[in-house]
């Protein structure tokens, strides 16, 4: 965290380490062994039985004797790997085309103004595609893979790259002196998300500008708060005496698309938008400290009282939720589903369980924070779409505990159970949810290395957890699920729900791969030896599973100066003998990070999003002098975050 005068850079929000938890615990012999050896190798090696039975119980052995590779239908990726590196533009594997589908500022309505970077207004921005798309989903229309609704989050804004004559304000200027109310209003309009009808005609994707579905959602759009925390006193403000209505969603990172065709959009680093600190004796002081409030990265609190905690102390409780949006109804009031907890939500990808319940996996992206899942009480109704719209309001939230022996437990977060009682400050389920992190601390969940996207593979029921990095983990904080101190490159944990049942409260797990450059022994990366020098990656962030059950990973934070490579997309084998082999498919222009990825149901189109192209660490890149003018490369246009679509030349699956 590069803090300056109590201000954070917006781009550093994801890296800010404001945890308030006790990171100490006792290391068991099992953890030490699992740390020092790759557990899979250990279990399969000759010393496995002796070493393991000396340190862990029979339950772990039994769990690990189950065939891990039950899908065992290894389909290798056959694309020709690209070279890792960094320059001003993007690169995709040979034989594939990249189309720029939607750029920041592109009009998404027939009557919307064209993008004019020198004459930006909030009104124009609210009719144009927003900034920094992270999650992208594709919801087919009439079952088509060539015609549907693109849903896209607009996570955050970079003032120095967006606005002429402004330069870096967050971190450089305690008072954000160049951020006028007009610019803040443009930022508010550039946040949120978009629904855009798109169609593939003669192989090319097009935006349908006169679609009845197209919609911009901003950080000011009226929304409803639903579920157990709705209406609670701590959710009420001077503008909303009901505690059930809120304007806007902020910092929406990743998300998911439900089987009933709604879009789940996740509020992540909401803390960066609030000014003001509450006194230590304030009722919300502990709560807000745990979420890192008090170091704003935006000027919004300067002009809007609701973004100043000293004036509106409950407003921040109304952010940090998973928002459900029906893209088929442009008048749908987005709903903040409080039953899924309040964290710095990365994503909300789910899977329909064998019993019909819907299970959503949720990462809380902070150093030493947790992995969660939500299991609905009701079942997905495949006949009546509308019947599913209340499904995410009732169910059980769980937080994960990873045991050193390769087993794990989902701990229910239910008021009145265990430590979640009034004695610990939780008077109701509403309060357990408002303070999800503190509740999870008390339950003894496992402190992870920044949980990002989590996806379940419907073909194997195995679940993949992207743990992007945690350079603050010390040697004495290492555990089996977070096996490296100073974890600069992150790792991926694979979880196996008991009997393939995603509602089960026990699971087994193992580290699929420790990321980083395998040729540098000190890094301790564990890609397979078939992985080339281009094939390794660090900082896994978003992920997707294609229809053949294969894992694709996009990265955030491959500092080009340190690693000589830009962020991008890698394909990682999880099956058979090639398990742990990674191949490089796509890379972004300098300064960018790669988001998405999302496949059409036939795997023939792959949507990707490039966030903050041209954002370089030195903060020297600006509107006037960006590190790249991608994707337009015109002197009169700034660099623009954009959504891309990849297709195979001549047609066919991306593979
Ligand atoms: Fe917005 Fe955790 O990445
Ligand atoms: Ca992310
Ligand atoms: Ca994903
Ligand atoms: Ca990211």
UniProtKB/TrEMBL annotation:
InterPro entries: PhoX, TAT_signal
Biased composition (Basic and acidic residues): 1-12
Pfam families: PhoX
Chain spans, region Disordered: 1-22
Segments passing through the bilayer: none
Tree of life domain: Bacteria
Cross-referenced PROSITE patterns: TAT
Name of the protein in its database record: dTDP-glucose 4,6-dehydratase
Species: Microvirga lupini
